Amino acid sequence: MSSVLSISVQKQEGTFTLDAEFEASAGVTGIIGPSGAGKSMLLSTIAGLANPDNGSIRLDRHALFDTAQNINLSPEHRELGMVFQDARLFPHMTVKSNLTFSRRQTRAALSTVEEIVDLLDIGSLLSRRPHHLSGGEKQRVAIGRALLSSPAALLMDEPLASLDLARRREIMPFLERLRHRFDLPILYVSHNLDETLRLADTVIVMDQGNILARGGVEQTLSRIDVQSLVLGGATTNDHPEPVTIVAATIGKRSDDGLFSIETPWGTLTAPNITGRYGDQVRLRIRARDLVLSTTEPTGLSIRNVIAGEVGIMTEAGSAQVDVLVRPSHDSNAQPVWARITKRAATELDLQPGHPIWALLKAVVLTSDIELEALR
Question: Any alpha helices (H) in the chain, and if so which ranges?
């Protein structure tokens, strides 16, 4: 049975205040936010590398830290695996020695050394020392070492931040394997939206030491305020172009090369889906790629149509407006953002509650999330 991490901590450091409360169960909990939001400080308090001023940290019913009970276990007694931005391998040891250095005898092993080596594809590296490894190889070894310590939960503090794009793309499939192989709470800190999209099951958004938002990945990361915070550059009437993120299932590929994609909005079609039949994916739809119509469209080449009603409308600079389209067939279905000019909104007389049809070209639909900022 998987463990549950329960966090309720407050910490003052100079003028900065960390105040966070949440629970994390099996799967990847993405912790995202801009630099200086308190993400790494939060992980340090959970790991025991920094002490909160007040609060508690529990692993199931066992207190790792509790000011009321005067409990403060040392990092090595918290049964938590930690992976940092830099691999922090012992330079005088071989890869094999680094892997087995932190093995605990007090807990049942998550896996064998052989399986971890195979899972992370590091068998050819076992006799090498860290200075002979690439950045991506070092991080794979660091992840293996953390897993072989038999942790009840895994803490990952921006493990890809120090790597270039090629190395990040190299290591991402290995992180995805961990998510599916081990029944562990994994806290994954990042400031990169695409990493979080690809890995996380749930997400926590932090800003200035506080939790701004939490919940499902698609709903939380589709919020304009969250995207503005993570991507930066927001002012009162100007924010990054909204991106709608939605869970979907890859359907069959037709003879003409188009895939059917099952979404909360119905069946869409797309030619550029990466994956296989039945795979769960997350689609990323830019607001600029939607066209709005106040009448049901006919005689068009566009095949993906979402019928709905106009929701909120948000200014996006001096000449544009972002329109939230709420699907009409299901009040619980995720809405989608469209960006149009103010002139178009005026001429169409768009008003909240009015019927609207959102049109999406199949050729712009993609689930191939790149490890780059959504700009």
Answer: 39-47, 95-100, 113-120, 135-147, 165-181, 193-199, 217-221, 224-231, 342-347
Please tell me the distance from the alpha carbon of residue 132 to that of residue 139, in angstroms, as a whole number: 13
CA within 13 Å, CB half, 358 = 29
The verdict on pTM exceeding 0.90 is no
**Tokens read off for 6:** 């329960």
Tens digit of pLDDT for each residue in 151-180?
Answer: 999 999 999 988 888 888 888 888 888 888
In three-state secondary structure terms, 95 is helix
What is the enclosing helix (H) or strand (E) of 194?
helix 193-199
The predicted-structure confidence for 219-242, as pLDDT tens digits, reads as follows 899 888 898 888 775 444 567 889
Kindly provide the residue ranges of all beta strands, DSSP E only, lying in 232-315, ordered along the sequence: 243-253, 259-263, 266-270, 280-286, 290-293, 304-315
- Pairing assessment for the beta strands 336-341 and 355-360 based on DSSP bridges: unpaired
- What is the per-residue pLDDT across 110-123, written as a single tens digit (0 to 9) for each? 788 899 999 999 99
CB 185 within 8 A of CB 113: no
**Which residue is associated with the tokens 């049942």?**
108
Listed residue (62, 55, 48, 52) closest to 5, CA to CA: 62
